[in-house]
Write a structure and sequence with these properties.
97 residues, mainly alpha, globular
Length: 97
């Protein structure tokens, strides 16, 4: 049995219904604390860098976090439920700006 916390399905439904990224940004800004937003941004940067092939030490130095934090991101990328992979693949599909 998986005991990990689940996001409320109605919240997920609402977030996926928005057509404008700015609307998602507004909802998440109201929903999350500044510290939570910083943590999410940090974790996302770690995962993107690891996926791009950077070493854990290089990521640590670039992002300014501990090796333990980078290792947590690496485990999530390798052994998580697949959400990082879906998001990274979607990011790669976007046209370069």
């Amino acid at each position: 049995m998986n005991d990990r916390p689940r996001l409320p399905s109605d919240l997920v439904d609402v977030l996926t219904s928005f057509r404008r990224c700015a609307d998602v940004d507004l909802v998440l800004t109201d929903l999350l604390t500044p510290s939570e937003i910083e943590s999410i941004a940090e974790r996302w940067e770690i995962v993107k860098r690891l996926d791009a092939g950077e070493s854990q030490r290089d990521v640590r130095d670039a992002v300014g976090v501990s090796v333990t934090t980078v290792s947590r991101g690496s485990r999530g990328l390798k052994y998580g439920v697949g959400g990082f992979r879906i998001a990274l693949d979607r990011l790669a599909e976007r046209p370069a700006s």
